[in-house]
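Quick illustration, no need to memorize.
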Amino acid sequence: MSGKVILYTDGACKGNPGPGGWGVVLRYGDTSKTMHGGEANTTNNRMELMAAIRGLAALKRSCAVELYTDSQYVRKGITEWMAGWKRNGWKTSAKKPVKNEDLWRELDAEVARHQVNWHWVKGHAGIPDNELADELANQGVAELARA
């Protein structure tokens, strides 16, 4: 695949824990796709991770990806902390189990399929695709409330 895939991801949670949602905006050239979903009892961090996982999993073959998130937890986790967690048997530097290890492992597997550049963007700062990802995440929450 030539060119880069652009992913904007976001999570939302009403209460923490509480009902949560995730949203993804995927762009490649002139093509775009949006996705969203939710879980009844979750945390914002889990929804932020789920958005990145679902966005990368939607890519059918190995791609160069520019992934934008407003979650420092996700960006720092994957770019700074994960190598140490793996070295320490999925324990933090304080020797405690890594929170959300199941999703971190899933994200690690998805990232291994691609060449991903991670970018942090300020949330609610008027960046159109970040705002859309936020709307989609909140749509995931709203759909749970209606169900």
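The chain has one domain: 4-146.
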